[in-house]
Amino acid sequence: MQEEEVDDARLPLSRIVPIPANQLNLYRIVIILRLIILCFFFQYRVTHPVRDAYGLWLVSVICEIWFALSWLLDQFPKWYPINRETYLDRLALRYDREGEPSQLCPIDIFVSTVDPLKEPPLITANTVLSILAVDYPVDKVSCYVSDDGSAMLTFESLSETAEFARKWVPFCKKHNIEPRAPEFYFQQKIDYLKDKIQPSFVKERRAMKREYEEFKIRINALVAKAQKVPEEGWTMADGTAWPGNNPRDHPGMIQVFLGHSGGLDTDGNELPRLVYVSREKRPGFQHHKKAGAMNALIRVSAVLTNGAYLLNVDCDHYFNSSKALREAMCFMMDPALGRKTCYVQFPQRFDGIDLHDRYANRNIVFFDINMKGLDGIQGPMYVGTGCCFNRQALYGYDPVLTEADLEPNIVVKSCCGGRKKKSKSYMDNKNRMMKRTEL
């Protein structure tokens, strides 16, 4: 039995699942037919110029060729789409054995927001709560909320969220709740008693729903209060002025709400870290975009937690699966491919959209066809959110080089033996490379 577990631990943590050919052959045949028709069309267009309007004919042919080329380039990624499957049991067997310290890598999760009046604080709170309740070792999860608008409303709502998380997180983990964003969990029109076996679940669920409704009222009260800004600006509870009253001229602000310093839930268990960050703003600098906020979070997180991997989400993108981080680690920590993986892009799913999807708001074609097709070629593109990065790839460090990597490609043999001749230039390069590796 022990030998079987060792063999399972050496197996890959994910695999490629090709889409059955019978689902793709018809589409491929249509592509080929269209390509043949296009060839006949252009053969006719080129061999039958319009002499009376030669310039107009030439421009139209160039435009048609351009559109045909664009269509052809769009078809290549769709030729070989793939699915991917992860093995969470192998990940647990390799890095998270029961009764032993977890060897899963730390992850820093970034949530970005700007204007709480346009991006409701309640939605941001649900995103944060779904992160704090993930199925992952709590000492290896850190959530950073970037407030690029330096709004006191965001700060106060995050404080309320931290207090509610002390009750919500243990409830989710005790009863294995999915999804772990309370707004969307309580809106589900399903049998919430399915697979629940603890008699206390109904009573605790009702109490938690009441707690969440009271939490919503407190958040709504903060939003109503923020509608009218005082002339002298906002003041904090101790009477001092809020540093971010001027959103374009204020110092950097960092506040740790949850963490090692007393961040415990109602059951006395530790909670993941929750950190509020508002980067410094000064007039005359164009630093009001999301990319700059992400750069600031990378620097702050490097000082506080320095997780090996980063995952960024928008404030309205909650985790619909508590095992999302483990899914990402199946790729990042794979013994064979993990070192070659820069990022893992999650697909997006949408709530509250017309079931018939009349206006294609679900982006099914993009996420379920185009992205899977790109994955079949080399890998999907980064779509700006829902992406887990390798921190080292973002930092741009050179890869660690071994001595075997530094050996010259040309081997010179002497008549006395087959030893490699190490020239002076090779030794200089080796010393330089090893010094770079140490840095």
Describe the structure.
It is found in: Cell membrane. GO terms for molecular function: cellulose synthase (UDP-forming) activity; zinc ion binding. With 439 residues, this protein is an alpha/beta fold. Among the domains are: 20-80; 104-328, no CATH class. It has helices at residues 2-9, 21-47, 54-75, 88-95, 121-132, 152-175, 182-187, 201-225, 290-304, 324-332, 364-377, 391-395, 424-438; strands spanning 14-18, 82-86, 107-113, 141-147, 253-258, 273-278, 309-314, 343-345, 387-390. Helix 5 (121-132) runs parallel beside helix 6 (152-175). The longest helix has 27 residues, at 21-47. The chain starts with a helix and ends with a helix.
Largest sheet: 7 strands, mixed
> What is the overall shape?
globular
Mean pLDDT, to the nearest integer, reads: 82
Main structural class? alpha/beta
Q: Which strand order do you get reading across the main beta sheet?
A: 5-6-4-3-7-9-8
Unreliable residue stretches:
404-423
**Span from first to last CA?**
44 Å
Number of helices: 13
Helix content: 40-55%
Q: Report the radius of gyration as a whole number of Å.
A: 28 Å
How much β-strand is present in the residues? Answer: 5-15%
Report the count of strand segments.
9
Helix and strand sequence: HEHHEHEHEHHHEEHEHEHEHH
